[in-house]
Amino acid sequence: MLIKIALLFISVGSAAAALKNPRKLYRENDDESLLPSLYTDPIDGIDYRLPNNTIPRHYDIWLSTDIHEGEFDFEGIATIQIEALEDTQEITLQIRELTILNVKLMRSTGGSIQSNVPFRIRDDVEFLIITPSQQLIKETIYLVEIKYIGTLRDDDAGFYRSSYIDETGNVKWLATTQFESTDARHAFPCYDEPGIRSSFSISIRHDVSYTAISNGPQESRVPDGGNYVVTTFKTIPSVQSYLIAFIVSDFAYIENNDGSVPHRIFAKSESIKAGDADLALTASVYLLEKFEEYVNISYSLDKMDQAAMPDFAAGAMENWGLVTYREPYLLFNEITGRARDRENVIATISHEFAHQWFGNLVSPAWWSYLWLNEGFATLYENHLTHLAYPNERWIDTFLVETVQPVLEVDANPNIRPMTYYVENPIRIDFLFDSVAYSKSGSVLKMFQYAFGEETWRKGLNYYLIARAYNNGAPEHLHENLQRAVNEDNLGSDINVDVIMSSWETQSGFPYITVVRNDNELTFSQSRFMYTNQDSENLWWVPINYVVASNPDFSNTKPDFWLEGTQQNVSLRGFSIPKPFTNNDWIIVNIQQTGYYRVLYDRTLWDLILQELHPYGNGYEKIHLFNRAQLIDDSFHFARAELLDYDVFLGVMRYMEKETDYIPWASANRANNLMSRWLSGSSAYPRYQSFMRNLVEKVYNKYGVNIIDGEQRVDRYVRAIAINLACQAQLPSCLTDTANLLENVLREDSIMAPDLVAPIYCNGMRLRTNLSARFIFMLSRLSNSNSPSERNSIITGLGCTENPETLTNILLWALDPNNDNLSVTERSRLLLSPINMGEESIQVLISILASQREELIQFNLLTTLCSNIAARIHSERSNTLFMSQLIDLQFIGALSMSQVNNYMNNALTILNWQENKLKSIDEFFDLVELQATTTTELETTPTTTEQITPTTTTEQTTTTDSGAMNMVLGGIVLKFAILISFLL
Ligand SMILES: [Zn+2]
């Protein structure tokens, strides 16, 4: 399954959401508070596992639904062929929220043994225990027929209901399924474990005006009295219960006429008519063929259906032959869609198609090995897309959007390992975390490169063939990769099981310290964590490196393995794989294909910094991915107090020449934290000036206009450049974005979709003529029904850097008489300025003081306090915040423990500043000194001087805020009129 939940505006306090949303949060949320799935006690004392004394050989499922009438009750008959594995008195299956009407036991030939078999239900473990009067005999096949009723759920799980409003304004209901991980038992009694496979035949009785689809192709559709028909599907051979799916709906579809496999894309008819499924269809035909070619095994089923669901809990689900999606992950509109939206569709289809082999053809023996599904799907979500669209740099973005972000999460001392045993269904759901997806994908990528693509591919092919229509465990993967490694003579010392297990069964990942003494190179490994804790973990680490005098970054095979029994290894003389001189820098982990960080001794860092120095041209000698690695590693080593910030800032200096997305993505993530920590401090203006200098070239290259035919990554780097340049107060950025925003709003035209987020926000920063843009923004908000546009406007409003305007916006957000915002939008608007720096935080603290009643009324008080606490950047803010907290405790709005928590959190950034500011200031002293000595002849005024003079700004502010108050009143009134008119 591809887990994606709706993007949270602010992720602080959203631990549960972060757990379920690895990929999405990394991309669109920079908060360091992403919480991984932590070690929990895996066993709660209850045995949830099936007893394994009987197993299913075949299911015949018959279901009847009246969903076309909005009727939610359904009926079912499950006839299950079972085999007794031992002599037993009981048959145990799993059910959830079903009412069993009758159980019948028959011989395999159909003759009745007992027509009304007693049964009992154990709610704690969701067991249906059937107790026939006669003992079942070992190795004998029986038929168990279970009649039952149930209700379509409303929580997007099991057999559930969904609805949408059609073009004529009518509500249309549909019935659909989402079974992974343990909800198949809600649609029919079954052996609901991933390692248990069986064939399935499915029939559904439904209204003639609706269509039923399922995993297999339709076999027949026959009248069944009145307006009913029964649709029967071709039997699916050997599948686990969670991959079964069916949909009863009035959806329309499009289909292909080419390709070896028939593809259909189902969606609401208006989406089909608008052409929103066209991209998915074209991409699907192409991607499935590419993956068949890659694994050299044909797709198993006769057809591939995909459906876009109006209500869907995850991002998508790989049900065999019937993949289901949340609408935005399958549908794409050429006019309104962003590059990211297109990417989400293509990457999600790739992910789900990879599952058709990894997960479906071979299922995980138990949920402990969920990474065998999700790790491969994450890897191929990019790699398969790269094979299909080789010019779109899918492999490149994997590094900065998957590997580097998960290294951050995986540094948590309480993180779980990839292989992790749990039984309780709730805990099983929590395994769908960033370890199962991003970490496992990154670790698998490391082995793909360490063993080499050809060997890797061959090994995967052996694995899939050996375990086809069966379940798989890591040992099966290891054994088949070993076969390929041996055949390709990669070295007798390569024990795949030992090597890979060290990554699968241990938590976290290593950092490699590299020390050079004359002719000796020492590599040592330790677990990387932000806190200073002991760890015994050691890994088998593929090490390779490049030296300055021979800068060949193309071969990613290991030069040697740092063994899982070695804390360190010293190489000298002939044992050194690549010789070097004392003037050579060394870069370890070529193209950062290894899942680890690299910490150099100071001499080596200095040589690297020399090469990267902006006054030289050496940076291009170092591979693009390793430039991104140097930024990411140096920043996180500084964060972990293993390196000084001056090294990180020194690496960053070369960015003034960099215009590629990959290093900028790493730099952007680091900046998100750096700017937050420095905001409000004495060093912040110097940091802004430093960033302004770094971002100027890339900003000038990309500007604020989309260029026809450019790559998706060009659009991503443009958005970063705009955000960073405007944050750093680059005057051209402030005016360009403000002008573009004003023009688009004034002319009531459409902003290019990729520019909406960066321009709606940054276009609000410039204080000059702010009121015009503000009025237009509110007017557009009042006219917009599009949730995504409304969100962009709301976020944009919070980007204003004028405290008085911001105050007015927030008062409007909390005005109880303002019914133009939904509850969620009110909260979004309130928190929209949270990452905008010191001044905005002070405005939020003043709102805490003046709008207590409203904050309590809308249940926003604790959310606001915890968000402010995480962003206290100055002593002044801290004093103001503390005094509010004491008052709030005094009036009983906050408890003592809440207040203590907030007060402690509020010290985090201040403590950091106290420890780090001195060395950061020294770094800026040096940079400024160098700048003065080398740019004496330049006559361009400094960028700070180009900013509108303060006095003018203040005058504008005053005028603006008066106008805005009137506007706000007017808009409220306008919304009220609009609403009363509609009613
Ligand atoms: Zn998946």
UniProtKB/TrEMBL annotation:
Top-level enzyme category: hydrolase
Subcellular location: Cell membrane
Gene3D superfamilies named among the record's database cross-references: 1.25.50.20, 2.60.40.1910, Neutral Protease Domain 2, tricorn interacting facor f3 domain
GO BP: peptide catabolic process; proteolysis
Cofactor note (record): Binds 1 zinc ion per subunit.
Stated family: Belongs to the peptidase M1 family.
Cofactor: Zn(2+)
Organism per entry: Clunio marinus
Site (Transition state stabilizer): 437
Domain of life: Eukaryota
Signal sequence extent: 1-17
Molecular-function GO term, any one: peptide binding
GO cellular component, one term: plasma membrane
Membrane topology: Lipid-anchor; GPI-anchor
InterPro entries linked: Aminopeptidase_N-like_N (IPR045357), Aminopeptidase_N-like_N_sf (IPR042097), ERAP1-like_C_dom (IPR024571), M1_APN-typ (IPR034016), Peptidase_M1 (IPR001930), Peptidase_M1_aminopeptidases (IPR050344), Peptidase_M1_dom (IPR014782), Peptidase_M4/M1_CTD_sf (IPR027268)
EC number, as in UniProt: 3.4.11.-
Domain Aminopeptidase N-like N-terminal, chain residue ranges per copy: 56-243
Protein name as annotated: Aminopeptidase
Primary location group: membrane
Active site location: 352 (proton acceptor)
Region (Disordered): 937-958
Keyword Zinc: yes
ERAP1-like C-terminal domain boundaries: 585-848
Keyword DNA damage in annotation: no
Domain Peptidase M1 membrane alanine aminopeptidase: 281-503
Binding positions for Zn(2+) per the UniProt entry: 351, 355, 374
